[in-house]
Specification:
The chain has about 290 residues and is α/β, with parallel strands linked by helices. About 30% of the residues lie in helices and about 20% in strands. It has a 7-stranded mixed sheet with strand order 1-2-3-4-5-6-9. A 5-stranded mixed sheet has the order 10-11-12-13-14, with no helix packed on it.
């Protein structure tokens, strides 16, 4: 348990969650729009779509929270969870897969989510080895570019974006409800974790932000991987910050500044109020990625 908590802290957007004790976590549910709810507990934000046909959820946090997540869903519908879609492989988003799979849900994710969960992974920036997931936790349906669910009177469009937070990210759009779940491609609580060990790239995060912005409107509700429910104005602010920081880092790398020299410049400080978490990790990974290209 202790190891899990340390890693949860490392992956989660805010340091507040560093003290997470699963026994005291409350899973809170908010109606977003048209049968789609957002559940917040510990780990990645969950979307739950309920309706006449099936219960469909996006991500499932940590295994010890499954009973609380199930109780929160039971307060919305008497139907069982039929589909679980993972936004990416990280265990603060897929930890409940085994439990939900065993309870009868079909787990769906990008090809690379299954690939990474099938073998031991090493996340260099966290110096953390993650063992292969048990077979019951693996996605049973995978896709390369995307897949659409036609349920509950809505079209739920799942689109893989080029390498961003990881190489297996999916953005989920509830078309009629006008909601987009962006997973950790959009961290609304801090700077993004560009997981280079999992094939991530700052260019993909910026590209995905642009793609979602271009295909949404002022009324669209955006569920970020971590942080509060938000909208495209905030996504625009996030994207502009990342473009500015990428440009700045390109300049520092071209000037052959070391990562420690760049850290000393505090280039992310102007954004600390709006996006408080993960600054040092972001600078280190941005420097590493841009130094390679
Ligand atoms: Zn993640």
């Amino acid at each position: 348990m202790r190891v899990a908590l340390v890693v949860a802290a490392a992956l989660c957007a805010t340091s507040l969650q560093a003290q997470t004790n699963y026994d005291t976590v409350q899973v809170k549910s908010t109606l977003v729009a048209r049968g789609v709810h957002m559940l917040v507990g510990a780990g990645g934000n969950i979307a739950v779509a309920v309706g006449d046909d099936a219960v469909f959820i996006v991500d499932d946090q940590f295994a010890p929270l499954t009973p609380k997540i199930q109780a929160a869903i039971a307060a919305l519908t008497s139907k069982p969870v039929r589909f679980v879609v993972n936004t990416h492989w990280h265990f603060d988003h897929t930890g409940g897969n085994e439990n939900f799979g065993k309870a009868g849900a079909m787990i769906v994710a990008h090809d690379n989510v299954r690939k990474r969960m099938s073998t031991e992974q090493f996340i260099a920036s966290l110096n953390r080895r993650e063992p292969a997931a048990p077979p019951a936790a693996l996605p049973v349906v995978t896709f390369s570019d995307g897949v659409t669910f036609h349920i509950n009177g809505d079209s739920i469009v799942i689109t893989h974006v080029p390498p961003a937070h990881t190489d297996g990210d999916a953005v989920i759009r509830f078309t009629k409800a006008n909601i987009v779940h962006m997973g950790d491609v959009f961290n609304n609580a801090g700077l993004p974790f560009v997981d280079l060990s999992s094939g991530g790239s700052i260019h993909g995060i910026i590209g995905a932000a642009e793609q979602v912005y271009a295909t949404t409107d002022a009324q669209t509700k955006i569920i970020p991987g971590h942080g509060a429910l938000t909208n495209r104005d905030r996504l625009k602010q996030y994207r502009e910050m990342l473009v500015a920081l990428r440009t700045r880092m390109q300049r520092e790398v071209a000037a052959r500044r070391s990562v420690d020299q760049v850290l000393a410049l505090k280039i992310t400080e102007p954004y600390a109020k709006d996006f408080p978490g993960g600054h040092e990790r972001f600078v280190r990974l941005l420097h590493e990625e841009l130094s390679k290209r």
